[in-house]
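Pilot study result, target chain (112 residues):
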Amino acid sequence: MATCSSNLSRNHFVGVELTKGRSLNDIMYNMSNVAEGVSTTAVAYEMARSMDLEMPVTENIYNVLYNNADPKEAARILMDAQATHELAGRKWNLFKMFRKRKARKTPELNPD
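Predicted structure:
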């Protein structure tokens, strides 16, 4: 998030160009460097979906990048969202996964 506001950031450049109405394909085709956030967003989005995690920022960025959602509308949706606890919303199956791992690593207690 730190570099996304810098005028020198490739991710910032992509975002600014999207708000001007350019397509992601056109932006990426004309860039000589990689904007890591574009591919990272796709990976994070797919991981969140596979684990049924709620990630509104990632979901909205993904929709802007890959589903032609309006960037200004996506920002409005996020800014208008009611502030809630970070664990509110859909089940956080990620924590369930960690509990399962921990349970496997914990030796069974034998009362005998």
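One observation from the pilot: The chain has one domain: 3-105. A full batch analysis is planned for the follow-on phase.
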